[in-house]
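Schema walkthrough. Field components (list of strings):
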Amino acid sequence: MSTADISAAGTSTAGVSTPAAEASAAGASAAGTEVLGQAAASARTAGRSGGVAAFARLLGSELGLTFRRPRNLVMLALLALVPVLIGVVVRTFGSDGDAGGIVAATAGNGLMLTFVSLYVLVPLLMPVAVAVVGGDAIAGEANAGTLRYLLTAPAGRTRLLAVKYLNAVVFSLALTVTVAATALITGLALFPVGDVTLLSGTTVTMAEGLLRTLLIVGYVTAGMAALAAVAMALSTLTEIPIGAVAGTVVLIVVTQVLRAIPQLDWLAPYLLPTRWTGFDAVLRDPVATSDLGQGLLAFCAYTVLFGSLAWARFTSKDITS
Amino acid sequence: MTVGHDAGAPSGAPAAIRTRGLTKVFKGGQVAVDALDLDVPRGSVFGFLGPNGSGKTTTIRMLLGLVTPTAGDHALLDRPLAEALPSVGAVVEGPAFYPYLSGEANLLRYDAANPASSARDARSRVGQALERVGLSAAAGKRYRAYSLGMRQRLAIAAALLRPRELLVLDEPTNGLDPQGTREVRALVREIARDGTTVFVSSHLLAEVEQMCTHAAVMSHGRLVAQGTISSLHGGRPALLRVETPRAAEAARILDGLGLAEVTAAGSHVTAELGGHAPEEINAALVRQGVPVRGLAVVRPSLEEVFVGLTGEGFDVDG
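Field assembly_structure (string):
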């Protein structure tokens, strides 16, 4: 007996086949009609979990596209090269001269290369990669015409947008982890390993240093995910993916310029890029949790605001591509 | 003229597609679709005809929920759209796929987007759909390398990923060679035989005449006719056409037999056939010594009907 039979028997499942529903159906036919009510109930539950399974399947398909796409893999590889480059340069030329404290610290401890690399990449290069994936999300499908087929499949507009956003979040995480991991490996290979001296001057163990690195990875990912929401909102406004990507990059550059204008100091705390590099709070002793908290709050606010804009636009838009 | 709803489904009968006052006005005030009342009965092969720009595609996009109507209601399979769509296969305005994926991977992608589809049998369903359109051999090939005909067939395969109650095909034979066109028509007939309602838009009259049981005609965003193919033909009599060197004499004989609208011109005579049997007319002509070079019964094509309705020429290269 299949799930379709249960649906036909009058329950309100979406007709999604799941092992759970089949098991309950088998149970119902074995134990007689008394169990049918229960079967119906569990079939409804199965309908919901079937919904989750279907959502996971679409997300899997989305991730498969993102992480098999040569363009995205090239971006990941190029950004992964940066920590190696920095490591080799610091190792070769030393940290003498004007090199700041954090770069000097790299020469003293391999773990610091992770912080330095993220410091270099977070203001522009990583955001550009996230903008490419986020900006392509809806506009790319619209441009290829595949959006109309996804929606008539029917993927559901809210559901598709949620999948696209989660996909961009996973890409942000993968990007941050890739950079942090190559930096870590390069740092361990090229520089001494041991206790880590923090920006406050105190020293923590290598294990705690690694733990703090994880914290930084989480924080940076959240910052990139907030940017992905901005890119996604722009992506719902156009059918030209490069337009959404370029628009996002222009926004990043403009905000970076605004931050550099002293007269606009009051504005800086509200700008996304100001918060991105806020992960140096992790290198204080104790961890400056209120700074981190404010950063995460800002990321949250951006995500909610631009996520809502994207949703409002995408769910009401005429798809004519 | 409207070939009335009586020829389509009576209201209340199960409808595959029903619209009432469906209207779309685009920004800028362009009325793409104007108060459309469409009735597509279940089990029909319904031809949706109209010149390019008459509002066919906008209508299809509204039916599938891609475009929000400005006014009016519509329902597919008598269900709310979100519930109906998993049972509806669609080809909208030509194929669109991911060029860097294989045909099979493309179909798996679209199947994954359907919340009613199960992952477990996805591969076998994709395999069957590919086989049905004759693309099994090209399943692993990248879409980029597909020919236009293969792309069109892949789009139809995507519409056949699950058992469907309704198939909406927008210009399904566009870009196909004659062989491909024949295959698609055969496929449509086969699908219809299984009880699936097929709604097919086309600007090719011959195509609709060959495939469809019902048709509707759009012109400038309005529905100008709908009904069964024979009801659309209705009122237009079959003509008898006789080729003979002695046209005047033949015309006199046809007149004598009681045929209406007899006209002789050059070496041929035409008349409305009415209830007469063409073979008897032929015999009568020959008996009276009129040499008959050719004799044919000409039924008016849909084209003549539709050009009359829309006031514009159709592309009739099919």
